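Retro notes, item 3 of 5
We never archived the inputs for the pyridoxal-5'-phosphate complex last cycle. Fixing that now. Sequence and ligand:
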Amino acid sequence: MKDDNFLREMNARHLWHPMGHPGEQQANAPKIIKSAAGVRITDIDGHDPVDAVGGLWCVNLGYSNDVVKQAISDQLWQLPYYSAFAGSTNPAAIEASYAVQEFFAEDGMTRVFFTSGGSDSVDTALRMARQYHRLRGEPTRTKFLSLKKGYHGTHWGGASVNGNNRFRITYEPLLPGCFHLPSPYTYRNPFGETNGALLAQKIAAAMVDEIEFQDPSTIAAFIMEPIQGAGGVIVPDASFMKHMREICDRYGILMISDEVITGFGRTGDWTGARHWGVQPDMMTIAKGITSGYFPVGGVVLGDKVAEVFEKAGPEGNIWTGYTYSAHPVGAAAVVACLSETLRLDTKNNAAVRGAQLYEGVKKLAEKYDIIGDVRGGHGLMMGIELVSDREKKTPMDAATMKRVHQATYEAGAMVRLGAHNILMSPPLVISEAEIDVILSSLDAGFAAA
Ligand SMILES: Cc1ncc(COP(=O)(O)O)c(C=O)c1O
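Structure as it came back at the time:
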């Protein structure tokens, strides 16, 4: 490894960072994270904050899970790679598929298609939805519905159903036939509705209206996150996903629950759909499936969809897949990670520590006027929306957001910025004392605004 001077000198010089401006990253060099242990990361200058981001909503088991590390290492020596394209497989992939279907059995999921991450999973699920309807003799069902504020990755399909225009406009035109409904976001919505249950009803009515307008026979699937993550941690009313499920059933539309963040315990339940008492037709998964230790994602499907493919003629062939689908090392990571996730019962800690974080941030909102909206209380996902004027709900400017971020970091917690929101998704193994560190660091951060 080169020395620290080299790293500082070359930082962002040759590496373009995702979701960043290459020139800006050169002018304001990114933090160099050199190591991590437990729920703390250590940067090149020796800061070791609690990682309230969990890497990127993914390091659910923290950074020191030796069981997962050992499984990855062992598999590298046993079989570092072999293709899983039709005709060959590997033992770890078979074992991982069994573990995944066991994990999702209560959601009604019985099959898995592995990918390399969340964006792959979303694109695959959208393709499978279209193919499902073709196989059933309804090839006109090609359109997709989704929610504004939703984030579904950055492949063309995922970006097309994405509900934040900053991920869309630069790359338009996107996929035709994608339509967006209002987000269940009580703080700001086109109905001026602050009651979550009433807002859910209004969005349900808008959905019916859109489906009737498009004609149900043209719509393949509706995709949603059970709790919108990157869009600002938008927690819908408990009735919302049930309304969406009922409407999908009424019109023969497949429901895809994008569980890339909400899967594997983050909401305080093993899946976001289970948290709301809904069974989707497909789920997209990634992140917590390996705690971020190896890039793996997947689409999980229930019998209703799976059997249509399995009983079809040659047209049931799946014409998509990735070199690293069912990668043996990734699969070994999945097996170990799921077993550790269940052993540690991370969902329960997420529920309890999530409540502590939520209550703590609500107290901070009494102290600081710049806190416009506090969203969380369902596991370890938190969004804090900052405003420069509480009455007018004026979004906080970028310079102040950066100042808050840096002061919070220096006081002991890494948080994430999403426009004028502070987003948090710490490891699910976090302790009470470590949540207190996040809260006191935020306090210092807001004081510096
Ligand atoms: C809900 C959701 N879907 C899809 C994705 C895309 O996943 P990836 O970044 O692994 O491609 C993300 C990433 O944050 C996500 O939050």
